[in-house]
Amino acid sequence: MTRYLLHNLRIVTGDSDFPGSIAVEGDRICDVWKKDNDGMAVSGSRALPFDELPRYFQTEMPRSEVTDFHGLTALAGGVDAHVHFREPGMPHKGDIGSESLSAMLGGVTSYIDMPNTNPPTISAARLSEKLGAAEGRSWANYGFHIGATNTNLSEIESMLEKHEDGIGARDFGGIKIFMGASTGNMLVDDNDALSAFFRIKDKEILIHSEDESIIKANMAKASSRYGDDIPFQVHKDIRSRQACIRSTAKALELAMRYGTRLHVLHVSTKEEIEMIRAAKQYNPEITAETSANYLWFCSDDYERLGSHLKCNPSVKDAEDRAALREALKTGLIDTAGSDHAPHLADEKARKYMSAPSGLPSIRQTLPVLLTVAAEEDIPLSRIASVFSEKTADMFGIRDRGHIKPGCKADIVIVDPAAEHVVTANEYGYRCGWTPYEGVRLNGMVKAVYINGCMCVSDGKATGVQPQGQRLTFDR
Ligand SMILES: [Zn+2]
Q1: pTM
Q2: Neighbouring C-beta atoms of residue 95, cutoff 10 Å
Q3: Ligand 1 center to 116 CA (angstroms)
Q4: How many A from CA of 278 to the centre of ligand 1?
Q5: CA distance linking residue 204 with residue 396, whole number of Å
Q6: Distance 84 CA to ligand 1 centre (A)
């Protein structure tokens, strides 16, 4: 069994931030040592001078390895519940192998992939196929959401009932509902079906929240004004703030009525933040996600980026971005999913109507969070919470997302202050571009451990085989 001491770190968790060291045995964290003010390493009832920890460790655990990280920051590896890895059906955009490699290089050690693939993940059979496809090929730990449709409620209900064999509730993350259409067209627009899904209590209900009728009306207006050459700046008026507000109001009302564990994905407006704040008073199980894209960009960037900023919901205004940053700081935002959604540059080069929506971004989640934290004076504990801990807890991923003894050793080690300028090549997405190209960000990922294996060292893949394990979901 391999044994490592990751020595001399700043360890940041959702509720603590301290100097110390992490001991790993096999695929799990076996010890977390804290350096106290007197320079002693303390774990439980044991205490010894911090500098003597490596020798003590190597005596206690023969054939172990010690790495001194000289004060770099350790966080639990990211748990990203919002990715579109495009498999099956769109391998030219990405697949489980290529996109999970990007995840790993960005410090995301576990992910839950969305169901709008081709074919879509809307049944136990499709889920089984995806689980099979990921086995042995995924660099990060993998899980999948099930997609809701107007007609698959009974299929999902039978999966929620535990079966001795076959696919059950532990085998998928949550239930994704598109309240507005996006890539894959999985719109749930039947009100009875929607209410029935919101009555499900033992799974997270994840919503893409935009009102389809408002979008359609705005689109018709834009088409009549601009013909087939709609400027990309108009995206935020088509996928408008009102579309988000109306849809989220409806979802929050249902979630308050039924006690739903509602997770509002990629919140993009200041109004929704206030609505979610109020709704959480009535139903504390309501949670909110935003992504780096909404924390970093605003409507001023459309002119420069054009289709490279086209995502759904649209990126809104500077005041929305400011409100989202504030909500990240105060804890109203629960999780930061990437919404990593690659498309080829060729596809993005089309005119507005046919340029697909979605941005590749999974390697930028952590650097953007760390940069925003520095700019807004947000404690790193908040970042540890939104990047990994809360997501793992929400989806019942019991032994991951935390730095504590007994948890799987999924750890990212970063230099939060190290600046880098993002280049398309450095970030190696299969699709070949990123909207962050040229942006200066803090937070270089130095090392990544997945299931106790060092998969990234000095920012580069170490050449080990994919280490991703299948996630199980206990909620
Ligand atoms: Zn998405």
Answers
A1: 0.97
A2: 19
A3: 9
A4: 25
A5: 10
A6: 7
- pLDDT for 303 equals 97
Give the DSSP per-residue string, 231-269: -GGGHHHHS-HHHHHHHHHHHHHHHHHHT--EEE-S---
Residues annotated as catalytic (active site), given as ranges? 339
Q: Which residue has 């990240």 as its token pair? A: 328
pLDDT at 180: 64
Query: What pLDDT sits at residue 16?
Result: 97
> In this structure, are residues 147 and 173 in contact, taking their beta carbons and an 8 Å threshold?
no
Strand runs (DSSP E) across 96-217, as ranges? 108-113, 141-144, 146-147, 174-178, 204-208
- Strands, sheet with 108-113, edge to edge from the N-terminal-most edge strand: 78-83, 108-113, 141-144
pLDDT at position 185, please? 60
Q: How far is the CA of 361 from the centre of ligand 1 (A)?
A: 11
DSSP letter, residue 388: I
Q: Tokens 């999966």, residue?
A: 159
Lowest mean per-residue pLDDT among 67-71, 89-93, 189-193, 233-237: 189-193
Which tokens is 22 given? 């992490």
Q: Which helix (H) or strand (E) holds 1?
A: none
* Dist. CA 388 → ligand 1 center (Å): 18
Q: Are 81 and 339 in contact (CB under 8 A)?
A: no
Q: Report the distance separating Cα 22 and Cα 305, nearest Å.
A: 42
- Rounded Cα distance, 155 and 171, in Å: 14
Q: What is the mean pLDDT of residues 56-70?
A: 92
d(CA 208, CA 21): 40
Beta bridge partners of residue 453, listed in sequence order = 450
For ligand 1, a single-atom ion, the residues with CB < 5 A are 339
Distance 113 CA to ligand 1 centre (A): 9
**Domain 77-395+417-439, classified CATH 3.40.50.300, yes or no:** no
Determine the 3-state secondary structure of 277 from DSSP.
helix
Are 98 and 86 in contact by the 8 Å Cβ rule? The answer is: no
Report the percent of the chain where pLDDT is more than 70.
97
User: Domain spans of the chain?
Assistant: 3-71, 77-395+417-439
**DSSP annotation string for 126-154:** HHHHHHHHHTTT-SSEEEEPEEP-SS-HH
Phi (first) and psi of residue 33, to 5 degrees: -100, 135
Residue 183 banded pLDDT, cuts 50, 70, 90:
low
Residue type present at position 218: N
In this structure, the number of other CB atoms found within 10 A of the CB of residue 282 comes to: 12
CA–centroid distance, 384 to ligand 1, in Å, is: 22
